[in-house]
Amino acid sequence: MSYAGDLSPTEAWAKLEAGAILVDVRTEGEWAHIGIPDTKATENDPLFIQWNLAGGAPNPHFVEQLKRQAPEETAVELVFLCRSGARSAAAATAATAAGYTSYNVLEGFEGDTDRFGERTVNGWKNRGLPTNLGKI
Q1: Residue 65, Cα to own-chain centre: how many angstroms?
Q2: What is the pLDDT of residue 134?
Q3: Strands 131-132 and 47-48, how do they pair?
Q4: Could you count the other beta carbons within 10 Å of the beta carbon of residue 4?
């Protein structure tokens, strides 16, 4: 692991309540159609920076966009979130290489699939953490 660590969704929420910033790295389509985390109860708004662009191509400007939106590298911890925890792990690795203290949210926003292919098993939404539907 080349970032600070993996967090369950509830551990991630506790980090956000302690001042960390959530970085949602899903696509614009996912934000609009599936929903976004609601961090109003914390002191920081989430950042929305796509790890992959539409069609799945990597975002070549990810770190540049992160540096524009996030505070100075040493000022705050970042918690990365995607659908299931894979893209966010890669984003946390890239952010760590850029000088940030970065964590990955295991299970992601939607979590794992059940035996029918539905994302009902775990994840941010299924654990009852605050969400909004497509209101960036």
Answers
A1: 15
A2: 62
A3: unpaired
A4: 18
Q: What are phi and psi of 4, to 5 degrees?
A: -65, -30
pTM over 0.70: yes
Residues of the chain by 3-state class (helix, strand, coil), percent to 5: 30, 20, 50
94-133: burial string, b at 16+ Cβ within 10 Å, e else:
bbbeeebbbbbbbbbbbbeeeeeeebeebbbbbeebeeee
pLDDT of residue 54: 82
Q: Which of 102, 124, 99, 116 is nearest to 39 (CA)?
A: 124
**What are the tokens at 52?**
């992959």
Residue located via tokens 């009902």: 120
DSSP letter (8 states) at residue 98: T
CA-based end-to-end distance of the chain? 30
Structure tokens at 41: 């109860």
What's the rounded Cα separation, in Å, for the pair 83 and 119? 10
Residue 31: in which H helix or E strand, if any?
Answer: helix 28-34
Low-confidence ranges of the chain (pLDDT < 50): none
> Which tokens sit at 106?
């295991």
Rg of the chain on CA atoms, in Å: 14
